[in-house]
Every structure is written in structure tokens, then in C-alpha cells.
Predict the structure.
Amino acid sequence: PSIETIDRVEIVKGPAGAELGVADPGGSLFIVTKRPEREFAAEIFGGVGTFGFRRIAGDVTGPVTESGNLRYRLIASYSERAEWRDGRPDETPRWTVAPSVAWDYAEGGSLLLEYQHTYSNEPLDRGIFYLEGAGFEDNFAPREFSVHQRSDIQKIHSDRYGLLWDQDIG
């Protein structure tokens, strides 16, 4: 999940994680996403920083029905990472859209449907190559230099779907 969609991170250490099934002996890590709320709430936040960093995001949630048994949440964000080294393209966006709907269909029964789409067009960062005698200016390879890849741009589209059915049976 994108950072904007995360509500909290839960850590279960050591053998206590055994009750959750087969896991590493060190424990388990759970990323809990934000869920639709019964009360309306909205927030917009942003930030700017050095080397061209900028970010803006919004989060709105609330009931669809008067009883609150049907709720929604929409989270959206846009950012551009810091351009800390010469040769980085000017347009390197990363954005996320994450709608979710929760429905309490009966006493003790609920259904949560989540979706998240993230697009990223950020250049790969291979570190700084210093190759003495290789013919590069100042012996430093240009930003787009790669032995393995022809393009310096890595476009990524990722989708995450979630369905949580919770029913008390007793």
C-alpha cells in the first residue's frame, strides 16, 4: 500500500506470531489500511522540500446512508521526488487513487471492498558510477548510463484489490 493509505503497522514479535500460522520465527508484520468511517471527515495535506520535492494528498470519508451502514473513503495523492542529481528528467510523477466501500449488511456482518491504483514514472537510480579512463566527462558516467537497460525511465502501474468479509457466527 502507499503511505497515504496506511492507518497503522502492527508487529507481532517472536513465538506469539505462531498463532497466526506459519511465519518466520522473528514474528509477523501487518499493514492495516485506512477504512471508511461512520462520521464525515476530510483532509488535504502537502509538502515541499529541497531539490524540487513536492507532494499533495487528500483523504475524504463518511457515510453514504443515514444509518451509516454503507460508508466510503477516497484517498488520492500526487508527488514528485527530489531531483538531487543532474540529468534527472523534470517530470517524474507518482500518483495514487484508492477508493474503498464498507457495508454492514447485518448485525455482526460486514463487507469491505478496497482498490488502489498507483502509477510511477521515476527514473532508476543506479548510484554514481566513477569509471576512470572510460571516456566519460570527469570520469563519471552520465545519469542515463546503463549496461543492462536502454531506458532511464521506469513506468510502473500497480493495482491492489482487497476484500474483507467479517461475520460473527456465535
Remarks:
- The chain is about 0% helix and 50% strand.
- The chain has a mean pLDDT of 82.
